[in-house]
UniProtKB/TrEMBL annotation:
It is found in: Cytoplasm, Cytoskeleton. GO terms for cellular component: cytoskeleton; SCAR complex. Coiled coil: none annotated. It comes from Patiria miniata (Bat star). This is Protein BRICK1. One of its GO terms (biological process) is regulation of actin polymerization or depolymerization. Belongs to the BRK1 family. The keyword Cytoplasm applies. GO terms for molecular function: protein-containing complex binding. Keywords: Coiled coil, Cytoplasm, Cytoskeleton. InterPro entries: BRICK1. The keyword Coiled coil applies.
Length: 81
């Protein structure tokens, strides 16, 4: 009879392992979701930064051209007015 009393113990151990497995899976899911959110944010940030840097580059290029033009006029002795 003592053997029958011990039979439920493995079942409770299995149930405990299943519960722990589900808890681990839920934890992994939360971590995975947060990693995806971070990756999405970083990709969005990268796109935004690249766009802003491209606009700044265009403005700088335009300013450089204006400076080169003005320097050429000054070198030739032309008046700037």
């Amino acid at each position: 009879m003592s053997r029958m009393r011990h039979a439920p113990a493995p079942q409770s151990t299995v149930q405990q392992q299943i519960q722990e497995d589900w808890a681990n899976r839920e934890y992994i899911e939360v971590i995975t979701t947060n990693i995806k959110k971070i990756a999405d944010f970083l990709n969005s940030f990268d796109t935004s930064c690249r766009s802003r840097l491209a606009m700044l580059n265009e403005k700088l290029t335009s300013l450089e051209r204006q400076i080169e033009y003005l320097e050429a006029r000054v070198t030739k002795g032309e008046t700037l007015t």
